[in-house]
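[Structure tokenization] protein backbone as discrete codes
[Encoding] learned vocabulary of local backbone shapes
[Protein] chain in single-letter code, fold in tokens
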Amino acid sequence: MKMKKLKQRKVLIIGAGGLGSYLSSFMARISENRQPLYDITIFDDDKVEEKNLSYQNFKVEDIGNFKVKVLDNTLGINSISSKEEYQVLTSKQMQGYDLVICCVDNLAARRLMYKEGHGEDCPVKWLDLRAQGRNGVLISYKVNPQLIVDLLSGADGSFSCQGGEWDGSAKDISAMHIAIAGIATQWIQRWFNDNNDVTDMMVLNV
């Protein structure tokens, strides 16, 4: 019997670090009759470093390789349709996806995504995932626009999902980024099934 071809959901994940490496892994495994549900594109220009191994979804043999290439080899070419070894710098790079997901703790990337608008009329539907230490946040394009200014405030630059005070010790490693990646996977599944049946924003502190 010939299997019916599964209609894939096209998503862009910005960032393949702590959040992105786990989110892409969770999503790539969702399939039906061995057909992946998600057509995933990942943008990230970083290579795997020694310091990443304790909290990101990589192994020792991955050190020195581009994170997107490692994830592609690990999860399979059928799960990740495109692996881009550079940053998202323009609005045009976010066009053509059902959902854009920001997994980098970088205000410049967030501002670019938020410029696409908010509410049901915005042309690019987006999801902003954040984790720093014991704190985690999920923010969607549905969020109250009065909160946008505060949500985009803070220092410029890129930051670790382990938080600024983490000294590299194993005893203080936080798994909040994994929790947020799991919650986001559930949010994404429900959103694609009925985009009104999801929260606009969620804050966690454990």
